[in-house]
Give the backbone structure.
Amino acid sequence: MENLNVTPWEVSGELNDAAYSKLVEKFGVDLINDNLLNRIKKIAKGKLHPLLSRNVFFAHRELNLILDDYENGKPFYLYTGRGPSGKMHIGHLLPFTFTLWLQRVFNVDLVIQLTDDEKFLIGGKQKSEIEKFTNENILDIISLGFDPKKTHIIGDYKSAKTLYYYATDVARHITVSTIKAVFGVNDSDNIGKVFFPSMQIVPAFLLSAVSKKKMRCLIPYAIDQDPYFRVARDVLPKLGYYKPSAIISKFLPALQGNSAKMSSSKEESAIFLDDSREQVRKKLMKYAFSGGRDTLEEQRKYGANPDVDFAFLEYSFLEEDQNNVEKIYQDYKSGRILSGEMKVIAAEKISDFLEKLRTNREELKDKVSEYLFDPEKLSV
Ligand code: TRP
């Protein structure tokens, strides 16, 4: 835990339960308690998204104020994003299934930012490459089924004019020493890193700014993104907006386990959205981190540990019927289901999901423009 370091641009150290507790304390976020879960469940007509019921989204900032506003009939909106540094894999897409669920439950507008500029400044990739991923990633995301009327995708380069205009308002209230302290930037870093956070903060008030209606914003993100929004909560009131609220996740499980070194071959590191049924099955069989036992006898006798098992976890995030999940959990834990069988169940679930995405993706290829941020079309 000594070497635990979590910033948007660098994550190191083992992320176990203790590490998350430490981050919660250090960042000053609150855990999502049963009271909040019950309030959401009530609004969602008795259901919870698996990433919420399975405690992947586990922390928050002033989520209660969003629920208060909703219950009082006041508008709010959602904001999330993605750094388009490569092909998307299933772990990248799952948080968007959660945001989609929130959008449907609350029937609200959603801004999705693609920080192509961030990936240029920090990753060292070519612009042409990033542009290709940006376009691909947008298609991947909208193929989940977002409503084009209420979903506003904003690419930083494409919408630079609007974003930059508001980013200067933010930048004027952030000092270099804050950026150094919060993001771990040092004197040998490029100066783009110092300014960029202003760009990621803009969508947290953008809809309020363009609609000239002060609204709260709820941001789903993985905990490494917290520095941006900690700073945003400091700055936004100075600009006359609400502090953004947050619903915060742990990192999603990685195919080969969260503490495994990234495989040298990228293909083996994750299940990508364009993987065939055969590839999905093979990757699970060959690489998936297993909560099973070393031998068949031991597994029958002692059962597996589903809570660390990649196949079980992915299955549980994609299966909407929580009764089915509970049954598989018990069967796997008690040794009635073996690891190989668990992988077959998960492979099928994942492939069905991917197949549906690919069908939608084909249909949406010429419709991307309907989803892009356009201040004119804002219904709020
Ligand atoms: N910086 C994020 C990344 O690299 C992308 C992002 C932009 C984001 N805005 C966001 C993520 C809001 C979550 C919420 O992935």
Notes: The first strand starts at residue 5 and ends at 7. The beta strands are 5-7, 10-12, 30-31, 57-61, 76-82, 110-114, 151-155, 216-222, 245-249. The mean pLDDT is 95.
